[in-house]
Write a structure and sequence with these properties.
2 copies of one chain form a homodimer.
Chain A lengths: L18 H13 L2 H8 L4 H9 L3 H10 L6 H6 L2 H8 L4 H10 L2 H9 L3 H10 L2 H11 L6 H4 L6 E3 L4 H11 L9 E5 L5 E6 H6 L6 H4 L1 E2 L10 H11 L3 E5 L5 E6 H19 L11 H28 L1 H6 L2 H29 L8 H31 L2 H31 L8 H24 L2
Parallel strand pairs in A: 1-2
Antiparallel strand pairs in A: 2-3, 3-4, 5-6
Helix pairs in contact in A: 1-2, 4-6, 7-8, 7-9, 8-10, 15-16, 17-22, 19-20, 19-21, 19-22, 20-21, 21-22
Subcellular location (chains A, B): Cell membrane; Membrane
Main location (chains A, B): membrane
Organism (chains A, B): Hyphobacterium vulgare
């Protein structure tokens, strides 16, 4: 046994998809060779198998589920992205799904079953033994994207008056009843409320006669099953938690959250922010063209509306443009610079809001900074663009007009970039979603209006 | 002792900045009341103290470091964002910094010392005892953003022939020499190469006579000190790792990485991607106007260049615009829709590249999907915009021109959105940085050229 046993020796960097295996898998699926697929994937980590499956298109994924269902173990299913999981689950036998689910801890089992459509979910649940079914149904009773869905019902708890020795003896006796993996022992009071947590490694280091109460970390955060997963991920990040107890409404310990699930939540939330800022509702790599169109067209429609609005502003000044066509040539520059400066300010603001660094205590300072940053950048590019326009069209009055419009638009861009997301947040909306459209509407309208309006007043 | 002791009872949601405390802190700093500051912050979690300090402006932060250095413990400094840490560290006594550093594990200590300027770092290192100094200097010898900087030199290892009982007895005897917190015991062979890892909780559950080799997880990933932190974070995420061993060039176990550091790396990398896509080089909440201008102006300058290029395309058709001013009114719509569709496609591509889902095995399918998605969206909005333009200007030839230009530009946008980041990646550049500018250059130039060129041919 050597640590290099699983490390690919060829071109594939470790941890990345082995393209030659991906191609081989696709060929074996086309050939319908279920046994060959089993041999190809044997010994691979479930995460690597999941990666290979995600390289297939959805028809191939469906066929794989039909001809080689045995490679789709619980662990592999849990490692798939949700859109792929949905595709293969629809092809699997409910009994196979029920067996896969029972391999998993309750949090992963919930993840797997929550995405099935209602009819299939009922069929699968019917195959799960009574006691596990009740636990699954209770997890499913919490809203999606909450702590209740992510929590594991298995945890280790000990009363605060126990000693280290007592706790260790108890755990060794409990053996198989303990969770597969845990990082903290939760210390509970007589009301079964978690009052502290002792990392397992600290238990190991401490003398047997030490009381748990003397070595525990205080529990600072109260997580209930309906706490939003984004809040939970934030607590984990801020307090460097590895695990955290979940309490029910009466404060009794009822579950455990672990950091590996939070890493996924953090990635998911970051992905949503990035896509939302770009105007994409949802995206998976195996999306079809139809799904992609569906998730992007709505925001393009909104953008069309605001673009027509901006055009309306231009139309107000059509006489000026006819007299001086240089206005038509230069006007997109003012709008484009404003759009860029607004997007910069917006990205900084969305990030500060999602990391909760932007609060009412510093909002005023940040707003002023963004406006001044926009203004200063406006001044810089007013000079640059003024010189360019003056030399290009040999018209220094026109140069002055574009310079002034640039300052106005970039100052407004900075302000809009911070005020729009803060406003959306105040009204309870997600600042990442739809902010972009509002900000570019402001910068287009202000840009065209300032430039063409000034030109109409000064030049004609 | 109750679990609610630290949970704020007023308006502040738990874990978020207590604005009234932030205001009080600012007032105490203005008053120069160091003792009052100590009382205000007493009993708070270091992460909460760090949050409060981050709400101050940099003059206040500097004054805090001068009048109340004792609140800036190692843990508080480690929780600060790097830009704030830089501000306060410059005001602290080297002896104070050296003491703070020695409170911390080697990974956090490295984090703290690596950002000091050279002169201060030498002064601080001189105050650190010989043995710790050597370890710190060795960590600093690795490049920034590598595993070597993040790794902890303290870890727990056991030979593969040991039993569970032997290992536990050894750990309990070692006591204080063990790391403050650890999650796995690394199993090493006779060459001190890590061949497996046993989670501490599994050690607890197993019988004393079981051999470590029989319950260990294989080590699948080889992390060396110069492995990029982004790769390391990806391994942690993919394989759901809680900790991982680091090996030196000869394969010997030399350090340990833990998931809490990886959560920070993941957030940092996501922040960089989001800001880079928006054209911001770097951003901190306490940045001054000057710093903000400096980090945003370069990309605005690049954008100005591409905007002038696009204007050059418009200038080619100035005669057409003078004849039919509706062209000037409508042309920004074509460019804006293309820019939006390109940004959508780009965000999806950047995300897929950073999560390593986009590989040579599926690239062709994804490229085709993006082009078709652009084309179909182009067809949808060609119809919508054709009708709008036809009704607005009562010119159905103009409507046909804008419709055709829309399809061309959105198809190109889809293609550019995926090909630009893939191309940058192939040339070893970061696909998030500078992609936006290239993509919008394509959509502006193609949009103006297609619309005005077709119009000049058909309408005039």
């Amino acid at each position: 046994m050597s640590e290099t046993a699983d490390i690919p020796t060829e071109d594939t960097p470790q941890g990345e998809v082995d393209v030659s295996k991906a191609v081989a898998l696709a060929i074996l699926i086309e050939e319908g060779d279920g046994a060959g697929i089993g041999r190809l994937l044997e010994g691979l980590h479930p995460a690597d198998i999941a990666d290979l499956i995600e390289q297939l298109n959805s028809e191939q994924q469906e066929k794989l589920a039909r001809i080689a269902p045995d490679v789709l173990t619980g662990d592999v299913l849990a490692n798939l992205q949700w859109d792929t999981r949905e595709v293969v689950a629809a092809e699997l036998d409910p009994a196979h799904l029920a067996a896969a689910i029972q391999e998993l801890d309750s949090d992963d089992a919930t993840l797997l079953i929550e995405e099935l459509d209602d009819a299939l979910r009922q069929q699968v649940l019917a195959e799960v033994p009574e006691e596990n079914r009740a636990a699954l149904e209770s997890s499913l009773s919490f809203d999606e994207e909450t702590a209740g869905r992510l929590m594991q019902r298995e945890f280790v708890a000990a009363p605060d008056f126990w000693t280290v020795g007592h706790t260790i003896d108890h755990m060794r006796a409990a053996g198989d009843e303990l969770p597969e993996l845990f990082f903290d022992v939760y210390v509970v009071n007589t009301g079964f409320e978690p009052v502290g947590a002792v990392p397992v490694s600290r238990l190991m280091r401490s003398r047997r006669d030490v009381k748990l109460a003397d070595i525990m970390e205080e529990v600072r955060i109260r997580i209930e099953p309906d706490t939003d997963q984004e809040d939970v991920a934030y607590y984990f990040e801020k307090y460097h938690l590895i695990s955290a107890p979940v309490v029910d409404a009466s404060g009794r310990l009822s579950g455990m959250l672990t950091v590996d699930d939070m890493v996924e939540v953090i990635q998911e939330e970051n992905k949503e922010d990035l896509l939302a800022l770009a105007g994409v509702n949802e995206a998976g790599l195996t999306d079809t063209v139809f799904e992609s169109v569906k998730s992007r067209a709505p925001w393009l429609l909104v953008n069309l509306g605001t673009a027509v609005l901006a055009s309306g502003v231009i139309a107000l000044f059509d006489a000026a443009i006819t007299q001086l066509v240089a206005l038509a040539v230069l006007m997109p520059i003012v709008a484009s610079m404003g759009g860029n400066a607004g997007t910069q300010s917006l990205a900084v603001a969305v990030r500060a809001i999602s990391s909760r660094d932007l609060t009412s205590a510093n909002a005023r300072r940040v707003i002023i900074r963004e406006m001044l940053t926009g203004t200063f950048n406006g001044l810089i590019f007013a000079v640059v663009m003024g010189v360019v326009a003056g030399l290009w069209f040999q018209n220094w009055a026109l140069a002055a007009v574009i310079a002034i419009a640039m300052v106005i638009n970039l100052a407004c861009a900075g302000l809009a970039g911070i005020l729009v997301p803060m406003g959306l947040k105040r009204f309870g909306a997600d600042p990442a979603v739809s902010s972009s459209v509002f900000v570019t509407t402001v910068t287009d309208v202000v840009g065209f209006f300032a430039f063409l309006g000034l030109a109409a007043m000064v030049l004609l």
